[in-house]
Amino acid sequence: ITLGTWMKDYVFYPVSLSRWMGKFGKFSRRVFGRSTGRTLPICLANLIVFFLVGVWHGAAWKYIVYGMYNGMLIAFSGLMNVNFRKWKKSCRIDDKKAYWQIFQIARTFLLVNISWFFDRADTVGQALRMMKNAVTCWKPSALLSVPVGLGGTAAYTALALGVLLAGCVILFSVSFFQERGRDVFSVLAAGPALVRLAVYGAILFAIPMLGQFPATTGGFIYAQF
Hints:
- This protein is mostly helical.
- Helices cover 75% and strands 0% of the residues.
- The protein has a domain at 142-219.
- It has helices at residues 3-16, 19-32, 34-57, 61-79, 81-90, 98-120, 124-136, 157-179, 184-190, 193-210, 214-217.
- The two termini are 14 Å apart.
């Protein structure tokens, strides 16, 4: 069972269907109206779930903030859903247009990566400083002086950054085609056998050549959970 499934079955649904949440829903509909009143209990249940997800990752404030940040994003999205639809309609935005789908992918990618500052930093304060430095101390040339390459030396940094860039392009392309209703794997499976073999071979070659394994990364990240 995954963490998401466990939280859904044993936290989200029990909280959402609880008696006190039902009373809160009636109160919300009476005070805020039918639409917002129906959404608020779901948002509150989501916040509880993501608070626990944060605590599950670690008993530290940075993990709690990490969880609550993601929970508030989803809650805000749910509360503003009707307003977003009205805004798109007034601006004549078509969900099927490529420019809008690219914007959605980039927006989600940015918001998710902001949450990773809290996961990677040692403290909440350090995470906030990292965010500030990400936009105020931008020095692209410094990337080439960081030994993040395959051999652990700066000589491999350019290659490692190239691999990361290529990976981002591939992931973005797959996301873009999925947003447009195309299943990349189905398209690949229906293509020429030679193309499929080339793609599968490249993937199999890349895993041992470019991957990081427990001997160098310190073991399975969730080994102690």
